[in-house]
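Hi R.,

As promised, here are both runs. First protein below:
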Amino acid sequence: AGVDHLVSRYGKLNRGTVVQPAIELAKNGFEVSDRLQGMLNWRGKVFNDTARHTFLSGAVIKQAALADTLSRFAQGGAEDFYRGETAGRLVADMKRDGGLIREADLAAYRVIEREPVQFDYRGYHIISAPLPSSGGMTLAHIFGQLKHDDLKSMRQADRAHLLIESMKRAYHDRNAHLGDSDFVKIPDLLEAERLKALRVGIDMQRATPSAELGNSIEAIGAGTDTTHFSVIDDEGNMVSATLSINYGFGSGYVSPSTGILLNDEMDDFATRPGKANAYGLVQGAANAVAPGKRMLSSMTPTFVIGPKRTFIVGTPGGSRIISMVLLSSLGFMLDETAPADWVNAPRFHHQFLPDEVQHEEGAFTPEVTTELQKRGHVLKQMRDYGNMYAIVLDKETDKLTGLADRRGEGLILHTK
């Protein structure tokens, strides 16, 4: 539905032309990379023995059923997918294999286009995703707390401490209050005096325990597959797009007659308020499951527009997406390092619960690590995460610079 909507409302090409490369890829296949094999091994329990021994690095995966589905979509669009032959095939597979999706569920789906979140930060105008993606509001929340701080002149330990504490407070509000605004009333979390008070409450010499932030959500326990692309065309139209089936390989179920891999986006709801989801997020009733409701996500496709340059950025990464976009956007605005570092530098993250600073190797120097621990931060090193892609537009020269994350397999492409 999203592709159909974009093509019909904003596109120059017809649907068939847009979909044809995907049809060819599904029909002719693609080679399993080392990274994909690693993902297959990581999620090995959702694959049968044949798949585990067949999809090895260098093997070619062809998806004939998916190619047929995409061909029907090229002809019939969203009508076929949600109410036509493809819908019928998918529902038949669901009924046979114990799934819950029925004809009425598919027929009721609609695209909703919402106004993006927009705010200013120290001479830059930032545009990001609206609810039910929490990315834009949470990003605005953090930047709102930092509005009057000169990060550029701060010592590294002070800057890291302030960013961590600001993340902690923003994620507290995200987890407690945000959800689908068509179903729940969202309080004015971005009110200037409120954000100022939160910033005043940050002790620069002491980490605030999450439990002191008025938590009304009891953590019960802990219980990735997203894609991003950034594009700009010769007319200056910009796209920052993040698409997700949530966890690695989604639900792990492929509809045999359509070739469609179903997502597990239900995990982005607070399926039980107070219980952690797959990313460790503990959320409240505002994001509880309800019929017709759309789940909260962390996707944060973003434009950072400055007087001389524009930054188009986004990444996969579950609940850490917001902090990744925050750090890369600050890298762009502070301009202290080479552009490649804005997407490649080691990352750190705090999401209120669990009360720990998750970080990649090298995110902090030994000296900064010691200072953060003295202030009461609990540090937890993680494997590398995210797969960021960005574009920098120099408005004075019209020069474009593409930035690709060292952690992934994406490409920087220039086409005419």
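And here is the second one, sequence first, then its structure tokens:
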Amino acid sequence: MGHLVLAMTAVQHLKLDELRWIPAGVPWQKERTLLSGTHRAAMVKAAITGHRGFKIDRREIERNGPSYTIDTVRESQLAEPDAKWFLVIGQDQYERLPTWHEWRELITRVTLAVAGRDGKSPAPPSELLAVWHRIEALPMPPMNVSSTAIRAHLAAGGTAQSLVPDMVPTVVARYIDRYHLYAPPRGGVPAA
């Protein structure tokens, strides 16, 4: 639910014509991939269906190799050079931005649209204090949603339906439960 609220806030606050959801194909900063890109894309598609202006962009799933945001931004800007580009992220990713592949170039190409935690303005990490970048603070309401907590709940045998409507949209919960995502199978390793 947090991602949907963030996206709706971004569309309204930034007056966006379109917001692209880009599921990572091979998340390079993760030690292991919990789900295939196909499952991530299916959940995004389920979550955004019916939301005007939301579009799924599958380029990272279809690309071979690691999913680097800078590659996606370069490709998008080459295809649509006159568009104004925002990168919508939460405080957690803003803090990790200096660990991203070619982050210095990335921040020259986009305006960062950042949602702070608990309704507060986003706080830049120390590495970004010394580097010029465009930023728009997104006025997010405080939310008690954590993807880590959701995965832990599911890994402990809980159902996704029990997280509806506060943490997971109903259609996404159905998909998670149907494919037993994040739940450890008999072998003890979450399904991918």
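A quick note on the second one: The two ends are 21 Å apart (CA to CA). Let me know what you think.

Best,
J.
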